[in-house]
Amino acid sequence: MSGTRILIADDDVELGALLRDFLAREGFEVVLAHTADDALARVRAEAFDALVLDIMMPGRSGLDALRELRRESALPVLMLTALGEDIDRILGLELGADDYIPKPCNPRELAARLRAVLRRARGEGSEALTDLRNGPIWLRAASRSVSVDGTPVSLTATEFDLLVLLLREAGRVVSKERISQTVLGRPLGPFDRSIDVHVSNLRRKLGEAPDGESPITTIHRSGYLLRRLDEHT
Fold it and tell me: In sequence order, what DSSP letters do the residues of 148-204 get, joined into one string?
């Protein structure tokens, strides 16, 4: 990860310094911001590979910053959330965060989560990607872009890798456990709703299939299935 620039936005100055020093030893270049406004200003003015964003900050919250950021950027975002704050965590994922880690966090786990998010953003660590098509949904490997009926669809790195998996397995059920391992790079926790939220976001962005239904079907207690849409085109 040498040369990888990370922005950490957290009003806890001591924690920020601790995480910066640890990640620097892991080969990351780390910049600190202590308010949401400062974080947004830095993202707009400088080049970063990922943002670690604390949800609870004075003034504008991390959620407000994430909402604004997603209007203009697909920069990978890893949220820092208070332990047990499920509502904030789910809302952050709905707003387009790629993953989360609860506070207080283990710096080693943060580094591992960052590497996973960055690998997704760069398309690394998975089998060779080729162009994929299912009915009106086109995924182009070279540009890592997606379109539906010729209209570009903006996806986060996590949503993109989720769609890759579902397209490759179109017509077959993919378990939440497999999605978590393949897309997030970690086991599915017993109360982890991350996959559900990412699928919901992807479903909303893809819109309706030609038959008026969602292209992604929920299979109760099993997982998700991307329907084969070629027969409906």
Answer: ETTEEE---HHHHHHHHHHHHTTTSEEEHHHHIIIIISSPPPTT--HHHHHHHHHHH
